[in-house]
Fold this sequence. Notes:
Low-confidence stretches of chain B: none
Largest interface: A-B, 20 and 26 residues
Distance between the termini of chain B: 23 Å
Order of helices and strands of chain B: HHHHHH
Largest sheet of chain A: 5 strands, parallel
Oligomer: heterodimer
Number of strands of chain A: 5
Radius of gyration of chain A: 21 Å
Strand order of the largest sheet of chain A: 2-1-3-4-5
Low-confidence stretches of chain A: 1-10, 151-205, 271-502
Amino acid sequence: MTEGLHGFSSPRADVFPAGLRVLVVDDDPTWLKILEKMLKKCSYEVTTCGLAIEALDLLRERKDGFDIVISDVNMPDMDGFKLLEHVGLEMDLPVIMMSVDGETSRVMRGVQHGACDYLLKPIRMKELRNIWQHVYRKKIHEVKDSESHEGLEEILMMRNVSEQQSDDGYLFCGGDMTPGSRKRKDSEHNKYEEKDFADHSSVKKARVVWTVDLHQKFVKAVNLIGFEIGPKKILDLMNVPWLTRENVASHLQKYRLYLTRLQKDDLKTSSSGPKHPDINPRDATDKGSEPIKIQQNEAVSSHRTTNNLIIQNPKSTIHEVDIKGNAALQTIKPKKIITGYAAKTGISHPFESTHYSQFNSVLPTQYSWGGGFKEIQFKQENNNHSQFQVHNGCFTGLGLPAQQTTSIPSFQPPDPVIGPTWTLKQDPCTEQTSINTINNMERSPFLLQGQHCSSTTVDHQNKGVTEFNEQEFTNDALKFDYDYEYPDLWEYPVVGQGLFIV
Amino acid sequence: MSSVLQLQRQFIDYTTSLHNEGYLDNQFTELQKLQDESNPDFVTEVVSMYFEDSDKLLNNLTTALQQRNVDYKQVDAHAHQFKGSSSSIGAKRVTNVCAHFKGFCEAKNLDGCLRCLQQVKQEYIFFRNKLEALFRLEQQILQAGGSVPMVE
């Protein structure tokens, strides 16, 4: 992360784009060899990987060791789109997708998951020659973002404008956000950020690499105070001297975006979810996305530091996480329910319809982030979740936890990194039972944020936890245990791994 | 010398006909361009990898279609893989048959799938034979002291 102000991570910025460090991921050995050769001919530094999981490990190990990732969409161990999200979330690197299938819907998915480009095989060398533009563009935008973020906050502070959220992408909620909650956010921002502004506005942002540790700290802080509080508070809590509020702010923004996206994806894909509780984990073909989503929500709720935002809707019993496809999720089967969170947060919001079912899938697996970012996962799964609605108004529809200003659920599970603490506790009383309900889920996982919602303190968690197990979760996923070991589907080690990852 | 020239001529003609008949496409030419001193056997290496991989894929396809309850998703996945790797070396006809194959998988048309399987196997064998012939020609040229011409 020591990049200069220019933000080029490549140590050979002076000869850019030569020396661009590319990671190629493809399960087809023939293609891998060809791409490697082509990229070398472009004077890039190439590393190849035949498995997505390997690629993620490599990326995590060498946090700042790559500039761009090129990955195939169809891989046996993990959906390319999932990998894409993970990379974006954890490492924030540009990712190019490739496939021999150029169907519009696929390309669309790629873009939705954050791909900066989608190449059709057979790939010509000239197409690879220009991939450096994505790296360059990202760098430029990063600098801009941080600057503009500051600017936006400043405006917000000064005028107490609530649009800022949308500008920044913080506002995920489709519009359920009530003016009241917005204002609250604004004022909170004002409270916390006012003094910082002047100090930082002139500082040019240097690129910060969000390491696993750093991210974990971030998530912890966010969990404690929530997204709405604002970067300054988060920064304070993180207690990282060299980190600036802007860094946190832009990271926060990204995080939220990811969550939203996950949610959307999730909702979309999971809508068809299994109708019965048996989640078939293996179904997934594209499940990858789904599972996560839910988790996110759920997890989020657990964290909800602020209050009890718990996704768990006591009523809704998330039953079976509809893991539709979440193979990953299913495999994950958290061993235990993360009670930790639940207890902590005291879930307060009983969601009416927690349809957490979605969570099933989402859960555990991916979230190994230290904090449970399952972001990546969330995104996917969240599609369905978006519907969550928090009773107290905290949750708003899709994904964006509208009210809560922070919409982004605090992902970070309370210490044990174990991913989502969703303790999906679903009260048996809820009617939800199968994941099917996921579709109905109104609550958006994000909403858990309970910051504003404090009202219902559902303490489901505590009780839910056990209940959960009883529910027919087919997915086990819901129960996250701090130690749960996720199946290696996604190989995410649950334990606090880097940023968002599991 | 004349034999080298003749061989080179033969090589060019053969390559051109393979392109014309649709056995090879531009991707193959791209591969040839990638070959250089640091990697003088690049093309043959890649092609060998393809052959190995293809043998496995074809076996998988055959097995999958022999099941009592055919899992079309699985068959489609194999076909997709085969399509991908065939496109990597420019095996155009094989790639095209794979595309049809996938269509039948989607429609869960067993008959169509079985026919495609036959067809793809056949195309693959043709392709393999032709490439091997091409490589033999190349070897002959090199052994005769000549260089392999680039056919655009």
